[in-house]
Design brief:
This protein is of the alpha+beta class. Helix content is about 20%, strand content about 20%. The chain has helices at about 5, 50-60, and strands spanning about 15, 20-25, 45, 60-65. Strands 3-1-2-4 form a four-stranded mixed beta sheet, with helices on one face. The chain is globular and about 25 Å long. Residues about 1-10 have low confidence and may be disordered.
């Protein structure tokens, strides 16, 4: 049997929208977030929390108000 760490369940994945400079959580991101309007070439997926924190602190990126702090798959 695998633990959650072995399966990678504890790794958050981030969708970084370089066009809008917003960071989304892939598990909760949806149409309401608006990232689907950004060309694929301007999007990036990362598991690196340090990289995401660096973008927020030094490049003025922000977290998505709809999905970043969400704990539910249902977005209002």
């Amino acid at each position: 049997m695998f633990t959650s760490q072995q399966k990678g369940w504890n790794h958050l994945k981030y969708l970084i929208d370089h066009n809008t400079q917003l960071i989304h959580k892939t598990a909760y991101a949806g149409d309401v977030c608006g990232f689907n309007e950004t060309p694929l070439e301007q999007r990036e997926v990362s598991q690196d929390t340090y990289y995401v924190d660096t973008l927020i602190k030094t490049k003025n990126y922000a977290v998505c108000e709809y999905c970043y702090h969400s704990t539910s798959f249902v977005l209002e």
